[in-house]
Amino acid sequence: MDTILVANAGSSSVKFQVFGIVGDGSLTRQIRGQVDGVGSRPRLRAVASDGAVLVERTYEGELVDDVAKALATAGAWLRDELKIHPVAIGHRVVHGGPDYCGPIRVNEVVLQRLERYVSLAPLHQPYNLKPIRSILARFPDMPQVACFDTAFHRGHGALADCYAIPEDLYAEGVRRYGFHGLSYEYIASALPRIAPGVASKRVIVAHLGSGASMCALRNGLSVESTMGFTALDGLPMGTRPGQTDPGVVLYLVSEKGMSPADVQNFLYRECGLKGLSGISNDMRELEASADPRAAFAIDYFVYRAGLMAGMLAAALQGVDAVVFTAGVGENSARVRAAIADKLAWLGASLDVNANAAHSQVISRPDSGVALYVLPTDEELMIARHTLSVVSDKTNPQSNARRAP
Fold first, then answer.
1. Which residues contact 269 (CB under 8 A, 6 or more apart)?
2. What pLDDT does residue 393 have?
3. In what helix (H) or strand (E) does residue 31 lie, and over which residues does it extend?
4. Residue 346: DSSP 8-state
5. Which residues pair with 35 in a beta bridge?
6. Which of 6, 175, 268, 285 has the largest count of CB atoms under 10 Å?
7. pLDDT over 70 at 401, yes or no
8. Are residues 396 and 87 in contact, defined by beta-carbon separation less than 8 angstroms?
9. What is the pLDDT of residues 106-123, one digit of tens each?
10. Which uninterrupted H or E stretch holds 91?
11. Helix (H) or strand (E) holding 18
12. Bridge partners (DSSP) listed for residue 104
C-alpha cells in the first residue's frame, strides 16, 4: 500500500504519522510517533493504529541534536525496519505569508519564500522548514508538500483582513492572517457528519492549547479569527500574551532599553499564562496549583475567551454553536465550564454532567447555543492536502493558489 508521511516539527521534537492510501483514494492512519528530547535525551516512540507500541528507543544527544536529524531518524526507522517508503511527505508550516493560500509542493524557490516569514512565527517557522530543506538536499525527488496554518483564513473579506495602516504595507503583506487553520479546517470538515444541524450555520471554534485562538465559521468557512499578522494576537497562550496594546512594545524599547530580539523573545516565551502566574505555562499545572496566581491566570484566560467570543459573535451576527478543541479545549472540563458561563448571555447552557464526562455534546437540550467537544486532527488534514497535491498529475503546482 502506498503511504504518506506527515511531519510536524517543533523546536525540540518532531511528531509524525503514516497514512495508507486506500484504493478509493481515502486515507487510513497506520502509525503515529514522535522524536522528542532533541539535543538532550532524544527518544523515538511510535505506536500502531491499534495502540500497540512499535518502537521505544533512546539516542545519544549529539546524534539527534536538531529537528532535521530527528525526522531523519524517524525516516530511517520507517524505511529500514518497517520497509515503509512514502510516496510523499506533508509538512505543517505555520506561516504562508501573502504568497500562499493553499498547500503547495515545495521546491527551492518556495522554500526561500517561506523562509522570509521566520520572523513572523519564530517559535514554529524555522523548525517547520529545517527538515524540509534537509530532505530536499538529500532526496530531491521526494515530493514534499507544505500545508499552511494561515491558508484556511485567506478567504476573509477586506474588512477582516486589513489593519488601519497605509495600503502599501498591506501590499507588502502586513495583514491579518489568522492561524491554527488546519485545525479549524478539520473541524469544519467533520461538522457535517457529527453535527449536521449546525454545520452550515454560525459556529465559533475555540482551539485552546499551548497556542490558543478562536475562529468564526459560517457555512464551514472562516470569516474572522482572533489571531492576526503573527501568532501573538488574540487569546493569552502558554507563553504568548495575546491581544496587547502596541504601545507596550514601544515602552519596552524606549523605556526598558530592550532590543527587537529581546522584545521578540519576551513576547513569545515569557508572557501568557507563564508570565501571569509566575508558575507555569501548562494549564494542567495551573489547575492543580493552590497558588492564587495560578487561579488568576486561568480566570484571565477565561475572561479573554469570553470577550473574544463576543467579538466573533458580532462578526457572525449571532452564534448557533461553539466547538471546543485542542489540548485544553478537549481535556479541561473546568475551563470549558467557565467559558460556557461567559457565553450564557448568548444563550449557552452547559450540561454539567456531560461536560464532566467529556461528552461530545456538553450543552443542555434546551440550550440556545449548542456546545461541542471535538478532537481535532491536523495531521489528517495535512495528509489529505498532500495526497491532493501529488495526485494532480496535470499541474503539480496547481494548488499553490498565489494570493492577491
1. 123, 239
2. 57
3. strand 27-36
4. G
5. 14, 44
6. 6
7. no
8. no
9. 999 999 999 999 999 998
10. strand 88-93
11. strand 14-21
12. 146
Name the maximum alpha-carbon separation found in the chain: 63
Identify whether 149 is a catalytic site residue: yes
pTM, two decimals, is 0.94
Report helix, strand or coil for 330.
helix
Q: What was the pLDDT predicted at 54?
A: 97
3-state SS, residue 88: strand
Does the pLDDT at position 403 exceed 60? no
Give 314-325 as a DSSP string. Answer: HHHTS-SEEEEE
Q: Cell triple for residue 323?
A: 466547538
Q: What residues have CB less than 8 Å from 110, skipping those under 6 apart?
A: 100, 104, 146, 400
pLDDT in tens, 71-107: 999 999 999 999 999 999 999 999 999 999 999 999 9
Q: Report whether 114 contacts 96 (CB < 8 A).
A: yes
Point out the catalytic residue in the list 66, 149, 233, 377.
149
213 SS3 class: strand
- Is 142:135 a contact under the CB 8 Å cutoff? yes
Give yes or no for residue 399 having a pLDDT over 50. Answer: no
The single residue listed with the C-alpha cell 492510501 is: 21
Pairing assessment for the beta strands 14-21 and 27-36 based on DSSP bridges: antiparallel
Of 16, 19, 67, 24, give the one whose Cα is nearest residue 46.
Answer: 16
